[in-house]
Amino acid sequence: MIPQQILNSLNDFFTKQLSHLKGDILQHSLSGGSINEAFRITKGKERFFLKYNHADLYPGMFEKEAVGLKMLHTTGEIDVPEVIHFGNSGDYSFLLLTYIEQGKEKSNFWMEFAKQLAALHSHKAPQFGLDYDNYMGSLYQHNTFHNRWINFFIQERLERQVRLARDRGNISSADVSAFERLYKKLEEIFPETKPSLVHGDLWSGNFMINENGLPSLIDPAVYYGHPEVDIAMSTLFGGFADSFYETYNQSNPLEKGWQQRLDYYNLYPLMIHVNLFGESYLRAVRRIIQKF
């Protein structure tokens, strides 16, 4: 059941902002993952998606997610749920979105997905990073601006996670040394690029098939980064269809050797998983860094 504190806030919001929706709030529990509780709620003839958690656990999480969703929505390149309302209510934080009515995958779904992602990546910025920090899963994600991708990736992505893992005892001193050797090699591994708007957490669990049979992105961890980070992340935990990568490469050609670079980008989400879920993900990390 949705806590009464949140229901009171929602009823107040509906009364003031969406007064044409009549009747009580109907609620249906959904799977919200390991961080949040999630519900489909119905008010009048409209359905919404609600998720909430304890406000003191992840300060500002839903506000930051709302801003990220609005950034993606503003581009007009790919579907995302619309932000309806967010805030704190008593002990809880919540986020209210439009409900994605699930549809059947179109025959050209993966090709359209690739074209839309390539179009999203065409939105550029002067620097790598973002003007606010956000979250990757339940871990804080620092987005301090940098002029060069390699500096941003090392300092704001890898070093922070390696330091956290070391402090928690999740990795060995030998692992830390291997990362330090890797940092010195990344200059010759990563190509220079202009900062692109990226989803930031693009795996198979963070998109849905909407009622038009096209992708709808959810749970972003946005920033301006190297577009290959989204491509790399998409290969983890099952991967996307081959036609996705073929079409993306036609729409936004990737530099030679991109397949070999994917592992290095994925050290960031893998280290996130090491810090969230423990050493079961460490084998994948060591497979990559043992070369150094």
Quick recap:
With 292 residues, this protein is of the alpha+beta class. Helices cover 42% and strands 18% of the residues.
Main features:
Phosphorylase Kinase, domain 1, single chain, globular, Aminoglycoside 3'-phosphotransferase, Chain: A, domain 2, 292 residues, 2 domains, alpha+beta
Structural notes for this entry:
By secondary structure, this protein is of the alpha+beta class. The chain has two domains: 4-98, Phosphorylase Kinase, domain 1; 109-289, Aminoglycoside phosphotransferase (APH), C-terminal lobe (Aminoglycoside 3'-phosphotransferase, Chain: A, domain 2), CATH 3.90.1200. It contains nine helices and eleven strands. It has helices at residues 4-17, 61-75, 109-121, 149-168, 173-189, 228-234, 242-251, 258-277, 282-289; strands spanning 26-30, 37-43, 46-54, 83-89, 92-98, 134-136, 139-141, 196-198, 207-209, 215-217, 223-225. The strands form four sheets. A five-stranded antiparallel beta sheet has the order 1-2-3-5-4, with helices on both faces. A two-stranded antiparallel ribbon has the order 6-7. The longest helix has 20 residues, at 149-168. 33% of the residues are buried. The model has no long low-confidence stretch (mean pLDDT 96).
How much of the sequence lies in strands comes to 15-25%
Question: What integer is the average pLDDT?
Answer: 96
What is CATH's topology name of the largest domain? Aminoglycoside 3'-phosphotransferase, Chain: A, domain 2
| Rg of Cα set | 20 Å
The helix count comes to: 9
Care to count the β-strands?
11
Determine and state the CATH class of the largest domain: Alpha Beta
Shape: globular
Low-confidence stretches: none
- Helix % is 40-55%
- Structural class, please? alpha+beta
Report how far apart the termini are.
51 Å
String of helices and strands: HEEEHEEHEEHHEEEEHHHH
CATH superfamily grouping of the largest domain: Aminoglycoside phosphotransferase (APH), C-terminal lobe
Taken together, the total number of domains comes to 2
> What is the spatial order of strands in the main beta sheet?
1-2-3-5-4
Supply the CATH architecture of the largest domain: Alpha-Beta Complex
Largest sheet: 5 strands, antiparallel
